[in-house]
Amino acid sequence: MVADTMGGRVHVRWDETAQATPHGQIVFFAEFLATAGVFDRWVQACPLHYSSPNASRPRDVLGTLMLGILAGSKRYAHIAGVRGDAVAAKALGLNGLVSEDSVRRALKAMAAPASEPWMREALMTGVRDALERP
Question: What b/e string do you get for 30-62 counting C-beta neighbours within 10 Å, with b at 16 or more?
Fold first, then answer.
C-alpha cells in the first residue's frame, strides 16, 4: 500500500506475524494532513522564529510535539519515546525529531499575544465549517 505524505511516498507493508507498532497508523494520519494541508498551514502560521543558523526548524519542533501528543505523551519527557521513529518524521516532512528540551524551550519562547491567536485560528479552522451546518 502507498501513502502520499508531506515527506513523499511511503510504502506500507502489513506483516500479520509481526508485533504491532504503537505509531504504525501515523503514516495514514500524515497522508490526511498532507491532503488537507492542515499541518502545513499550522506550521506556516506559527509565531516561532529562530535567528540562529544552528536552531531546529519550527516544523521539526512542532512535528515532534504533535507526534508526542499522538503517542500519548503527557509530559515533555515522554516525547523521547518518539525520537527514534524515522518513518513518522519522514511522513510529516521533518528533517528529524528534536529533543524534549528543544520543544520545551520553543513553547516557552513564543509570546502569548502571538501564540494564542495562532492556536485559536488553527482550532477554529478545523471546526468552523462543521459549526455552520445544521
Answer: bbebbeeeebeebbeebbbeeeeeebbebbbbb
